[in-house]
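Let us practice reading a record.
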Amino acid sequence: MTDKELLPGNLYQAITTVIQLARQHVKQVVNHQMVSTYWEIGRLIVEHEQQGQARAVYGKQQLQQLSKRLTDEFGKGFDARNLRNMRMFYQQNPIWNAVRSKLSWTHCNVLIRIENSSARMWYA
């Protein structure tokens, strides 16, 4: 915008546009980072705790203990069910670069419920 376009009414509009664009960008960055973090948690659970197996040998108790420790330190979002979702998300998407960058964790959580991989990719 030029200085001539920044008359009192236009100045307000220009500032609100900048704020709205910044907020939109922040939401996108947060969503992307959240999905990336949850994918990485799923990877760690599968690869380090399960040695690549579909399920850990130690059973549900270990996941419950992990959930409690994470929740105590980081708050909501790390219950055993969500950790299982993170694990499933990683198992269905083992290549990070193949994950759609514009999807939120809520979208990913819905998609992991679709058993047919072709249908899942279509909906993504």
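A brief commentary: The chain has one domain: 7-123.
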